[in-house]
Write a structure and sequence with these properties.
The chain is of the alpha+beta class. The chain has three domains: about 90 residues, Orthogonal Bundle (Helix Hairpins), CATH 1.10.287; about 80 residues, Urease metallochaperone UreE, N-terminal domain (HSP40/DNAj peptide-binding domain); about 110 residues, HSP40/DNAj peptide-binding domain (Sandwich). About 25% of the residues lie in helices and about 30% in strands. About 10% of the residues have low confidence. It binds zinc ion. The site of zinc ion has 8 residues, from loops.
Length: about 375
């Protein structure tokens, strides 16, 4: 009889995903082969915990398991079916999101019971500059990337120094007794394999630098500083069973000439003249989806904010768009000629030109409050 996955991780049926993740992290550290060399029971516990997490850590699989128990995965092939276990590669590849990247590469090599170590190439980082329009609509960018790739014709054989493990064990005597530590194999630099035949133009590891064009799909609503990952488009690593690193794309937002971004909302400063404000006017303004004409009523006040619903930036995490807030500013001429001066002087004592703010003309502070509510 197979043990219950919840029992294995010591969590309850009502535990949240975060609690399950935490519980698994604890078990994985407790039973990690590096900490328990030669302990078959620890290794078994390590594998079972990984198997339990593979199911309970995934909402769909967990729901299936809750309905049908272990039967949900019988005959599914791969891990989890019957008594079949996950292999060590699968387990270590889970670690990236459990422990963060600091653990990803470091684990794995020290373990002697599983298959050969799988080396991952290093990540590459690039910056992509996007206009506000591209951010608002989403965009596909083609970028040229210089990546390390295995040269055509490069063949590899298992490294004799480390027997393909990529790591060698060093035993040292300390005041606490004999300590066993794993170190990167000096012969193969951790890849577990060494170059058998060196193609022309490649380096000592059978690698060369190649320029590749990578297409990156950027979803709408990204934010300056955000990083996207394109799996497998980083540097390749030597060896026949290595996997390439990832391409990390950092988003940089190009400042828009007229639109200011604030989260998902955009702001636009619109300037109108005295006569336009007094008579009413129709104005063309910039939005991320092209120009739009808006109508200002006669007698519009400086400081009025017009909200164009949905004309902002789409939310990257949920549905819906931000708004475009048009700030109306009445432009005062800095100098007047004689004729203009005469006109305004004749108006200055006009009853109609004396400010009489109404209750409905909200103060600046009230408007700011409204904007954020
Ligand atoms: Zn080696």
């Amino acid at each position: 009889m197979k043990k219950d996955f919840y029992e294995i991780l010591s969590v309850s049926k009502s535990s949240t995903t975060e609690e399950i993740k935490k519980a698994y992290r604890k078990k994985a550290i407790q039973y990690h082969p590096d900490k328990n060399p030669g302990d078959a029971e620890a290794e078994e516990n390590f594998k079972t915990a990984a198997e339990a997490y593979e199911v309970l850590g995934d909402a769909d699989k967990r729901a299936r398991y809750d309905r049908m128990g272990h039967a949900a995965f019988d005959g599914a092939g791969g891990f989890g079916g019957g008594s079949q276990h996950m292999n060590m590669d699968d387990i270590f590849s889970q670690f990236g999101d459990i422990f963060g990247s600091a653990f990803g590469g470091g684990f794995g090599g020290g373990f002697n019971g599983g298959g050969q170590r799988r080396v991952k190439g290093s990540n590459l980082r690039i910056k992509v500059k996007l206009t506000l329009e591209e951010i608002a609509n989403g965009v596909e960018k083609k970028v040229k990337v210089k990546r390390k790739v295995q040269a055509a014709g490069a063949t590899f054989r298992t490294c004799a120094t480390c027997n393909g493990q990529g790591q060698v064990m060093r035993v040292s005597n300390t005041i606490l007794g004999r300590m066993q530590t794993a170190a990167t194999c000096p012969t193969c630099q951790g890849s577990g394999q060494i170059l058998d035949k060196k193609p022309e133009g490649s380096d000592a590891f059978g690698m060369l630098v190649d320029e590749d064009t990578v297409s990156i799909k950027i979803p709408a609503g990204v934010v300056d500083g955000m990083q996207l990952k394109v799996s497998g488009k980083g540097n390749e690593a030597p060896g026949s069973n290595s996997i390439p690193g990832d391409l990390i794309v950092a988003i940089e937002e190009i400042e828009h000439e007229f639109l200011k971004r604030e989260g998902e909302n955009l702001h636009y400063d619109l300037y109108v003249s005295f006569p336009e404000a007094a008579l009413g006017v129709s104005k063309e303004i910039d939005t991320v989806s092209g120009k739009v004409r808006i109508k200002l009523d006669e007698g519009i006040q400086s400081g009025k904010i017009l909200r164009l619903k949905g004309k902002g930036i789409p939310s990257i995490n949920s549905y819906g768009n931000g708004d475009l807030l048009v700030h109306v500013n009445v432009w005062t001429p800095k100098t007047l000629n004689k004729e203009q001066k005469n006109f305004f002087e004749s108006m200055i004592s006009e009853e109609n030109f004396i400010p009489k703010p109404e209750k409905s003309d909200k103060s600046f502070f009230e408007k700011v409050k409204d904007m954020f509510s």
